[in-house]
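#struct-help
A.M.: can someone run this one for me? Single chain, 171 residues.
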Amino acid sequence: MKQPKKKQIVKGNKETPKNDKKNTKVVKKNIKRVARKHPQYGTSKLEEYFAETFLDKLKLEYVYQFEAKDIGRFYDFYIPKSNLLIEVDGDYWHGNTELYEEKDLKGFQKRAHRVDDYKNKWALLHGIPLIRFWEHDIRKNPEKVLKELKERLYIQDKQDEKKRRHRKILK
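D.P.: on it. Structure tokens below:
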């Protein structure tokens, strides 16, 4: 009776038996991984876009992924000088009710609503103002977002400042 042949693993030009552990190597694919800011949730492209487009342009100091330790939740941004929290909500993942009907929301979207309410209450309880921006406003109406940020942070344009100085001189 013939013995069955051992399966061969092809590695380069050499053939080695499967049970020969010295010559076989486990080949791992090189996967490029993006370093994440928060180990559990990762970073959102929308959050990165928001930071680059608005916060960096306004030259604001901010904390990315600010943790509320007593509830174990993270806020997208915290502006320490103004004591302001900012949340950037994706239309799909947070179930924007302007775009999706309440009855059609999926389970994860309903959960996001509950978590958002919880985070809103925590901020209110601690006396920290919280602003939420929807994805469609960030991408399609950046002037509105910029205007609201400036109003909340008491940032004035240089042109507005010049106009005010001239008004003071004229009066």
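A.M.: thanks! The beta strands are 8-11, 14-17, 63-68, 73-79, 84-89, 130-134.
D.P.: also worth noting: Residues 45-170 form a domain with the Endonuclease; Chain A fold (CATH 3.40.960.10).
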